[in-house]
Write a structure and sequence with these properties.
683 residues; alpha/beta; 6-stranded mixed β-sheet
């Protein structure tokens, strides 16, 4: 977290050239002309031991649930923490205040667009500050090792390169106006089953190549002010008392200068957590309250160590202007944020199937629509648990369609009776079936299959009307045994509070789909890599990561399994072609240049993806995403695109990052299974 003071001050609209008042002379940490490090050190030096300890843990009460109280005599403001991956969720307020419910973070990952990620984060950061909180616990970037994970919807998919790029941009957006982003859950928090006790056995290479790189990027490129340590053990050690992770990786290797906060009740010790470098305990002071004071008095923890635990949070607060300009309650710009939420939702929807150009629908010729299904009755604003946002407003599917096509008859059926729904569909020009899942923190899904009668419902409606469109509102992959029998499938994820308006906009072509899958959709549950009890949910409290590097599409490629829809896949209302690949070494790295052309009849965007294949002796999966570029083109327009690779891209972990030498394969295309361009590169 290395912030230039003048740059940050400019972002916050504050001045650092204030005169030194009498108060600042008596309490020099109030002088904004000093560096954040010096101000933090001066403040901590003036505190009593009890005051220091009071600032190392949350203190919930009848009015507060995520709160570190102020120290008025020293001018220390209160510190309020909010959940935040897809909008401001449960926070310090009792009761929870409304905020803009954005589409799930999985939808954000589908954009493959760092500009969108930054704007998404900026909205979250601005609302967190407007609702008078200091920290947004966001983003959640745990790799989707287990697609059935109940928090898959909160994450950014199965690939660390994609997750790292979008996380860094999201964090920069959150922190633009002085809100601290807290990237989570560090590290490998990949299942909800036994999440508070599971011991994940992960080899060093897999940990460093799959489960840590995106956290590194969140710190080194995103500048995250805070990191949340997670529930699980990794190789026998809880993450919140793991010195190799909190000190070795985070601070020594990556240069992190912010503070580490525990997940809700994830701390398990006083001396161990203090030694490892956990800075702030959440829920309360179970370990960092009286037990910490007694440990200091007994000589088990030095007071100097207490100071070292407190300094990073104060330094971060000073750097973000939170001492000089604490956040205060401010009205939300709801109309502006509604429009942004709608755009984010549209940009994140993935067109999975579109036979015979079923979509976009033509408002001039569609006279009747059968709107059917359990996810057609109300807006799907998000998943369950700590990320759940109370929306400022909602647009339900029926309202969204009627607003978009006011002259068209739209009839709603909840889909509880497939025969009745099929009858309605048969009497309508178009049938739109909305199905999905309800993921939530605290539990994993039993299967990727849709619950209840949803598969039967889709089959019945598709049989009754050849113009059937299926809209899937899920937090992750779902099984689709009916996929080949319906002409159009739109993956909408959890669209947020603008659900109805955004879905209608995509279905009728106001927005041309350009999103890509950040996670593989399998044909069957058994096709996924964590497909044995030892791997998931674990045996005798141990989850074995024996699949190693073969996570997500890496697994499908290495095992020769055909997915239902591959990683990186997504259609458009136009078409694109790739040509002219040339590759060259550039010092320690390389560059790949190629042409993308819009071969269709309407403007649209394509996500060009570059995958790298290592020499066989390296022991890597067949191909790995190393870069991507979103390209917007008019009909017939083409553009030369260059994707740069650095030395790290050609390296593997062997006790440290070690470059691999030999023959590499570079492939370029529009998904992990559609790579028309290929070239060899020797290094």
């Amino acid at each position: 977290m290395r912030y230039g003071r003048l740059v940050l001050a400019s972002l916050l609209g504050i001045s650092l050239t204030v005169p030194m008042t009498g108060m600042a002379a008596a309490q020099p940490w109030r002088d904004a002309r000093q560096s954040p490090d010096r101000r933090a050190a001066e403040l901590v030096a003036a505190m009593t031991l009890d005051e220091k300890i009071s600032q190392l843990h949350l203190q919930p009460d009848a009015e507060h649930q995520r709160f570190v109280p102020p120290v008025p005599r020293l001018g220390v403001p209160g510190f309020r923490i909010a959940n935040g991956p897809a909008g401001m969720g449960p926070a310090d307020d009792k009761p929870q205040k409304p905020a803009t419910a954005l589409p799930a973070t999985m939808a954000l990952a589908s954009t493959f667009d760092t500009d969108v990620a930054r704007r998404y984060g900026r909205l979250i950061g601005s609302e967190t500050r407007a609702l008078a909180h200091n920290v947004s616990e966001a983003p959640d970037i745990n790799i989707a090792r287990v697609p059935r994970n109940g928090r898959t919807f909160e994450g950014m998919g199965e690939d660390p390169v994609l997750a790292g790029a979008l996380a860094a941009a999201d964090i920069r957006g959150i922190q633009e106006n002085g809100t601290i982003a807290e990237v989570k859950h560090y590290a490998a928090n990949n299942q909800e089953t036994q999440r508070q006790s599971i011991d994940e056995h992960i080899d060093e290479r897999t940990l460093n190549e799959i489960y840590l790189p995106h956290f590194e990027q969140a710190v080194t490129e995103g500048g995250a002010g805070s990191v949340m340590c997670a529930y699980p053990k990794i190789n026998g050690v809880f993450t919140c008392e793991n010195p190799a992770l909190l000190q070795g990786k985070l601070r020594d290797d990556w240069g992190f200068e912010g503070f580490v906060q525990s997940d809700w009740g994830a701390a398990h010790s006083t001396v161990g957590s203090a030694a490892a470098g956990m800075n702030l305990e959440m829920i309360d002071g179970t370990w960092y309250g009286d037990k910490l004071k007694q440990a200091v008095l007994a000589g088990q923890v030095t007071e100097q160590r207490v100071d070292e635990l407190l300094l990073p949070r104060f330094r971060t607060m000073f750097a973000f202007g939170q001492f000089d300009h604490p956040p205060v309650l401010t009205p939300l710009p709801t109309a502006e944020h509604d429009a942004a939420a709608k755009q984010f939702a549209e940009r994140g929807m993935v067109l999975l199937r579109n036979e015979h150009a079923q979509l976009p629908l033509d408002s001039s010729s569609v006279r009747s629509i059968a709107l059917i299904g359990p996810f057609a009755t109300r807006a799907k604003t998000g998943g369950g648990g700590s990320s759940a946002v109370i929306p400022t407003s909602t647009v339900d599917p029926l309202a969204g369609l009627r607003q978009r096509v006011p002259g068209t008859a739209v009839t709603l059926d909840d889909g509880s009776d497939p025969a009745r729904a099929a009858s309605l569909a048969g009497a309508s020009d178009v049938a739109i079936v909305m199905v999905g899942d309800n993921e939530a923190e605290g539990k994993d899904r039993a299967s990727l299959a849709l619950e209840g009668n949803q598969d039967a419902l889709v089959a019945a409606v598709a049989a009754a009307n050849p113009h059937t469109v299926v809209v899937v509102k899920s937090g992750g992959p779902v099984l689709m045994p009916w996929a080949s029998s319906v002409p159009a499938i739109l993956q909408a994820w959890y669209p947020g509070q603008q659900d109805g308006a955004a879905v209608a906009g995509v279905l009728f072509g106001d927005s041309n789909p350009s999103a890509k899958l950040p996670i593989t959709f399998p044909v069957a549950d058994a096709d996924t890599p964590a497909n044995t009890p030892e791997r998931f949910p674990g045996v005798d409290g141990v989850a074995s990561y024996s699949e190693g590097l073969q996570v997500g599409y890496r697994w499908f490629d290495a095992q020769g399994k055909a997915p239902l829809f591959p990683f990186g896949y997504g259609l458009s209302y136009t078409t694109f072609a790739f040509s002219g690949l040339s590759v060259r070494n550039t010092g320690d790295g390389a560059a790949a240049t190629f042409t993308v052309r819009n071969t269709g009849h309407r403007a649209g965007a394509e996500v060009a993806q570059l995958y790298l294949g290592f020499p066989a002796a390296a022991g890597e999966p067949p191909r790995q995403l190393k870069g991507f570029e979103r390209v917007r083109l008019a009909p017939g327009e083409s553009q030369r695109v260059t994707i740069h690779l650095d030395a790290r891209d050609f390296s593997i972990w062997d006790k440290a990052w070690r470059p691999v030498h030999g023959g590499f394969t570079i492939q370029v295309g529009d998904s992990s299974r559609s790579l028309p361009l290929q070239a060899s590169l020797r290094r």
